[in-house]
């Protein structure tokens, strides 16, 4: 029995979409490469999920985010390896080189769907590591979505107007790099040396790789300079470094970091002391809340001394008021639980 290596994706799915044939398209070599990247993404997803099982459920947030990145990427690369998720677009620059000669080129829009989902998750990994405030996190993610959408629209435009969208995307990228390189880095360093190092390594890797994506876009979808097979290798290497390698580096950096230090104290249903009643002195009339003649308790409704409640030494209709001498602190009563009664003379 003879076993032969066959990749029939191009024969099965063809090079025609909506009756239009792509003159500049991937070959079997490009499809094989996409399948190889798919396999790496799947293995990385399984590895990240396996690592998640070694952590308590409330400490798995970064494992789940990172595994989701490679999971989505594996689906996108499966589609591209199958020669699906693309559309033919007329090229602005017609080249004489036979590998890029023709009137239209296949554009893998599924790649941008992948980025639209995964790049916000990558940024979420980084910005949560830095302990950035949620308004900043959400705004940076919005700018990231602008970057991806403008890249997609530019790739689908045949005329020179595509470069206008390219400029918008680059402007969005520069803002993201600024936040990562300055604001987020300062936040991460303030949380401790280990957090600062984890963010530095992952943030530097992401910043470097993301600056290469516009170059790839310019020589592929934008300028039609390199072939779709070379495009597959260029983007594939970037995605492998930006996703599985990034994820492994990030989870290694987080191995001894409690998410609670980053403001991510997540409770689990069977966690001990997950819900602790607030028994602070003066809360809802508990502790030092003996009732006066009119039923008014000192510390009622968490009232501080003399603030929105009955203050120390205030007497209700000839009754004694429970006071704690010298207590002036807000919301907290220090000292022994013995109640001292102060008598007022009318």
TrEMBL record:
<keyword id="KW-1133">Transmembrane helix</keyword>
<dbReference type="GO" id="GO:0005216">
    <property type="term" value="F:monoatomic ion channel activity"/>
</dbReference>
<keyword id="KW-0812">Transmembrane</keyword>
<feature type="compositionally biased region" description="Polar residues">
    <location>
        <begin position="324"/>
        <end position="346"/>
    </location>
</feature>
<dbReference type="GO" id="GO:0009881">
    <property type="term" value="F:photoreceptor activity"/>
</dbReference>
<protein>
    <recommendedName>
        <fullName>Family A G protein-coupled receptor-like protein</fullName>
    </recommendedName>
</protein>
<keyword id="KW-0675">Receptor</keyword>
<dbReference type="InterPro" id="IPR001425">
    <property type="entry name" value="Arc/bac/fun_rhodopsins"/>
</dbReference>
<feature type="transmembrane region" description="Helical">
    <location>
        <begin position="137"/>
        <end position="157"/>
    </location>
</feature>
<dbReference type="InterPro" id="IPR043476">
    <property type="entry name" value="Yro2-like_7TM"/>
</dbReference>
<keyword id="KW-0600">Photoreceptor protein</keyword>
<feature type="transmembrane region" description="Helical">
    <location>
        <begin position="61"/>
        <end position="80"/>
    </location>
</feature>
<comment type="similarity">
    <text>Belongs to the archaeal/bacterial/fungal opsin family.</text>
</comment>
<keyword id="KW-0472">Membrane</keyword>
<feature type="transmembrane region" description="Helical">
    <location>
        <begin position="112"/>
        <end position="130"/>
    </location>
</feature>
<keyword id="KW-0716">Sensory transduction</keyword>
<feature type="transmembrane region" description="Helical">
    <location>
        <begin position="33"/>
        <end position="54"/>
    </location>
</feature>
<keyword id="KW-0157">Chromophore</keyword>
<feature type="transmembrane region" description="Helical">
    <location>
        <begin position="163"/>
        <end position="182"/>
    </location>
</feature>
<dbReference type="Pfam" id="PF01036">
    <property type="entry name" value="Bac_rhodopsin"/>
</dbReference>
<dbReference type="InterPro" id="IPR018229">
    <property type="entry name" value="Rhodopsin_retinal_BS"/>
</dbReference>
<feature type="region of interest" description="Disordered">
    <location>
        <begin position="312"/>
        <end position="346"/>
    </location>
</feature>
<dbReference type="GO" id="GO:0005886">
    <property type="term" value="C:plasma membrane"/>
</dbReference>
<keyword id="KW-0681">Retinal protein</keyword>
<feature type="transmembrane region" description="Helical">
    <location>
        <begin position="194"/>
        <end position="213"/>
    </location>
</feature>
<dbReference type="GO" id="GO:0007602">
    <property type="term" value="P:phototransduction"/>
</dbReference>
<feature type="transmembrane region" description="Helical">
    <location>
        <begin position="233"/>
        <end position="252"/>
    </location>
</feature>
<dbReference type="GO" id="GO:0005783">
    <property type="term" value="C:endoplasmic reticulum"/>
</dbReference>
């Amino acid at each position: 029995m003879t076993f032969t290596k066959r990749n029939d994706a191009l024969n099965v799915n063809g090079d025609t979409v909506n009756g239009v044939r792509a003159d500049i398209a991937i070959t079997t070599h490009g499809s094989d490469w996409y399948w190889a990247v798919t396999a790496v993404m799947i293995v990385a997803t399984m590895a990240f999920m396996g690592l998640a099982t070694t952590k308590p459920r409330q400490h798995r947030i970064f494992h789940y985010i990172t595994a989701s990145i490679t999971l989505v990427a594996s689906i996108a690369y499966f589609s591209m390896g199958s020669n699906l998720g693309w559309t033919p677009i007329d090229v602005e620059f017609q080249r004489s080189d036979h590998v890029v000669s023709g009137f239209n080129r296949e554009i893998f829009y599924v790649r941008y769907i992948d980025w639209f989902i995964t790049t916000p998750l990558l940024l979420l990994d980084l910005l949560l590591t830095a302990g950035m405030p949620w308004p900043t996190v959400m705004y940076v993610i919005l700018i990231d979505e602008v970057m991806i959408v403008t890249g997609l629209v530019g790739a689908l435009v045949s005329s020179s107007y595509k470069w206008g969208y390219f400029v918008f995307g680059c402007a969005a990228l520069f803002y993201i790099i600024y936040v990562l390189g300055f604001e987020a880095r300062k936040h991460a360093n303030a949380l401790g040396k280990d957090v600062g190092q984890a963010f530095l390594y992952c943030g530097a890797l992401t910043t470097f790789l993301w600056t290469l994506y516009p170059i790839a876009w310019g020589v592929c979808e934008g300028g039609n300079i390199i072939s779709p097979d070379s495009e597959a290798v260029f983007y594939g290497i970037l995605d492998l470094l930006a996703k599985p390698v990034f994820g492994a580096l990030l989870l290694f950096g987080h191995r001894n970091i409690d998410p609670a230090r980053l403001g991510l104290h997540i409770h689990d249903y069977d966690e001990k002391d997950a819900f602790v009643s607030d028994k602070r002195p003066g809360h809802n009339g508990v502790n030092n809340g003996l009732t006066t003649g009119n039923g008014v308790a000192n510390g009622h409704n968490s009232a501080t001394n003399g603030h929105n409640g009955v203050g120390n030494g205030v007497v209700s209709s000839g009754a004694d008021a429970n006071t704690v001498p010298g207590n002036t602190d807000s919301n907290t009563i220090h000292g022994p639980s013995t109640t001292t009664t102060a008598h007022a003379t009318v």
